[in-house]
Amino acid sequence: MNKIKIAILASGRGSNFEAIAKAVKDGTCHAQIMVLITNKPDAGAIKIAQNYKIPVEIVERKSFANRDGLDLKIKSILDQNKVELVVLAGYMLLIKNKSLLEKYENRIINIHPSLLPAFPGESAQKDAFEYGAKISGLTIHFVNETLDGGAIIYQEAVDISECENEYDVAREIITREHSAYAKVIDMFARGKFTTEGRRVKYVENNKEGKHE
Ligand code: GAR
After folding, report:
1. pLDDT average, residue stretch 44-58
2. Residue 210: its pLDDT value, please?
3. Ligand 1 test: best mutation among 111, 115, 144, 155, most atoms within 8 Å of CB?
4. N or C: which end of the chain has fewer CB within 10 A?
5. Predicted confidence (pLDDT) per residue in 121-130, tens digit
6. Which domain range does residue 104 map to?
């Protein structure tokens, strides 16, 4: 089976990136990580990329006159690397450029630490805790022009009823993120998803699966 060529976009410590890189190395995730793209020169993700010998591209917002410039640079890196699936793993900027979103339509995915549409945005775990939610979770979804608003691919519920603060919530959810993300990327590699508008279906024997 061909491995799907992926790029990881991350802004922070990169624990999801590390879990994916480990699953790729173990052979449980049929992907090839072509490049890590980060907008933060001090992101922990960079060290992880170096450990796994994955090329790194740093694209700082301040190096570009506007957001389109940044997104177009990202697009050129994806194009150069013939990336088939773009994986946002704690990438904390919205992708806004139309040509990037159109070219990679249904091929950019994000992981978010709540059960969307509840608690979108940057502080999902804090918001869920403060709201007093008993169940939260994680969502893996396609990326479109709206914040955390693309079609939902996969969700997992996490019991947060015993959590005493937002950090407990984050801890409960992140370990589940680590196994879910690599698993979903592997399903992509096996061509297991079909998409019609907002409905993403898991198909056991998808004859159209590009990577089988
Ligand atoms: C993860 O919890 C991810 O779901 C979240 O940032 C964290 C990144 O952690 N993403 C968002 O909140 C996006 N809206 P990591 O850098 O250790 O993978």
Report:
1. 98
2. 53
3. 111
4. N
5. 999 999 999 9
6. 4-204
Q: Does residue 90 line the site of ligand 1, with CB under 6 A?
A: yes
Q: What pairs with residue 106 in β-bridges?
A: none
pLDDT score of 208: 54
211 is catalytic: no
Say if ligand 1 is within 6 A of residue 191 CB.
no
User: In the chain, how many H helices and how many E strands?
Assistant: 6, 9
Residue 211 lies in a domain: no
Q: Does any domain span residue 212?
A: no
Q: Is the CB of 12 under 6 A from ligand 1?
A: yes
Q: Indicate which residue's Cα is closest to atom 5 of ligand 1.
A: 90
Q: Are 143 and 95 in contact (CB under 8 A)?
A: yes
Rounded CA-CA distance 151/103 in Å is 17
- Establish if 57 belongs to a structural domain: yes
Cα separations (Å) of 114 from 87, 93, 143? 17, 18, 15
Cβ(24)–Cβ(53) below 8 Å: no
